[in-house]
Specification:
Blueprint lengths: L10 E3 L10 H28 L6 H30 L3 E3 H34 L4 H4 L2 H24 L18 H5 L6 H36 L3 H33 L5 H10 L3 H13 L1 H17 L1
Helix pairs in contact: 1-2, 1-10, 2-3, 2-10, 3-5, 3-7, 3-8, 7-8, 8-9, 8-10, 10-11
Length: 312
C-alpha cells in the first residue's frame, strides 16, 4: 500500500476545486489579493501594538496574539490553495497534509483560548478595577500567554499523533483542506480512538470558552447595570461588545464546520465552503473590528498613515 514502506511517502488528492478553465486566473488573482489583504491588516495590528508603548497593556498584549494566530491560519491555507489554482494539481503529500492540518487546528484552538483570556481580562478590569494592576501583572500575563500556547500546541500534537499508528485505505480527500475529520475518513481503522479524543478536545475548547465568556459577561453586565457612572458603563459595554461579536462569529463558523463533518445530511459543497471560511473570514473580520472599533488602536493607525501621507 505504501511506496518505500512509509505512510509519509503517500500522496493524497484533495477534493477538486471544480474551476472552469476561464475562471482559473480570476480565481488566482482574487485568492492572492485576499491573502495579501489578510496579511496586511493583521500585520498592521501587530506592528501598531508592538511599536506603541502606550498599547503595551494586558488587553492589547492579549489581543496581539489574535492577529498572529489569524495570519498563521490563513498561511496554512492560501499558499497551497494558490499553487493548486495555478497548477490545477490537487495532490499533496501525507506529511504536508498533516502539517497543514496541524496549523489549521492550532489556529482554531488558539483563537478560542485567546478570546477566553481576553474575556477574563475584561472581567477583572470592569468588575475588580482596583485589583486589576495586582492581578494582571506582566509576570502573570507572560505565564498566561505561555501556558495558553503550550497547552494548545500539546493538545493539537496529540490530535494528529493519534492518526499515525493506523493504516490508510484510500488517498482521495473529501475536503478542500486537510482537516483532521477529513483525514480520519482515509483510515482503515482506529477511528474510535480518534473520535473519542476529538470529541474530548471539542468539548474542552468550546466548553471552556463558552463557560468563561458566559460567566464573565453575566458579571460584567451586572456591574454595568449597577454602575452609576454612565461614561464607564458605555465604555465597558463597547469594549465587551467588540469582543462578543468576534467570539460569536468564531463560534458559529467553527461549530457549523465541525457538525457538518459528523452529519451526512449536510450538503458536501456547504461543508467545504464553511471549512474554507473558518480560515478566511475571521482573519479579515477580527482586525477590522478591533482596528476600527478599538479607539486607541484606530487612533494610532490613522495617525501613522496621516504622517506617512503628509511626508510624501
Amino acid at each position: 500500500m505504501y511506496p518505500n514502506g512509509s505512510v509519509f511517502s503517500l500522496v493524497l488528492t484533495l477534493h477538486s476545486l471544480e474551476l472552469p478553465e476561464a475562471n482559473i486566473y480570476p480565481a488566482l488573482i482574487f485568492a492572492a489579493a485576499t491573502y495579501l489583504f489578510i496579511l496586511f491588516i493583521n500585520l498592521t495590528i501587530i506592528i501598531t501594538i508592538c511599536l506603541n508603548r502606550n498599547l503595551h497593556k494586558p488587553m492589547y498584549i492579549l489581543l496581539l496574539n489574535l492577529p498572529i494566530s489569524d495570519a498563521m491560519g490563513a498561511t496554512s491555507l492560501f499558499p497551497q490553495l494558490l499553487y493548486s489554482i495555478w497548477s490545477q494539481d490537487r495532490s499533496i503529500s501525507y506529511s504536508a497534509c498533516l502539517l497543514q492540518g496541524f496549523f489549521v487546528h492550532l489556529n482554531g484552538g488558539a483563537s478560542y483560548l485567546i478570546l477566553t483570556a481576553m474575556a477574563y481580562d475584561r472581567y477583572i478590569a470592569i468588575c475588580y478595577p482596583l485589583r486589576y494592576g495586582a492581578i494582571m501583572t506582566s509576570n502573570n500575563l507572560v505565564k498566561m500567554i505561555t501556558a495558553m500556547w503550550i497547552f494548545n500546541f500539546a493538545a493539537i500534537i496529540v490530535v494528529f499523533s493519534l492518526l499515525l499508528p493506523y493504516r490508510i485505505c484510500q488517498t482521495h480527500m473529501t475536503d478542500l483542506i486537510c482537516y483532521k475529520a477529513a483525514l480520519m475518513k482515509l483510515l482503515c481503522n482506529g477511528t474510535e480512538v480518534n473520535n473519542i479524543y476529538g470529541l474530548f478536545t471539542i468539548v474542552f475548547y468550546h466548553g471552556l470558552s463558552l463557560s468563561v465568556v458566559a460567566f464573565t459577561y453575566i458579571h460584567i453586565l451586572i456591574t454595568c447595570v449597577t454602575n452609576k457612572q454612565s461614561d464607564a458603563k458605555i465604555k465597558a459595554l463597547q469594549t465587551c461588545g467588540t469582543h462578543l461579536v468576534v467570539f460569536l462569529f468564531l463560534e458559529f463558523n467553527t461549530l457549523f464546520s465541525l457538525l457538518a463533518h459528523r452529519y451526512e445530511s449536510v450538503p458536501a459543497h456547504l461543508r467545504r465552503v464553511f471549512s474554507i471560511s473558518v480560515l478566511v473570514f475571521p482573519p479579515i473580520v477580527n482586525p477590522l473590528i478591533y482596528g476600527f472599533k478599538t479607539k486607541e488602536i484606530r487612533h494610532k493607525i490613522v495617525t501613522y498613515f496621516k504622517n506617512k501621507i503628509s511626508s510624501v
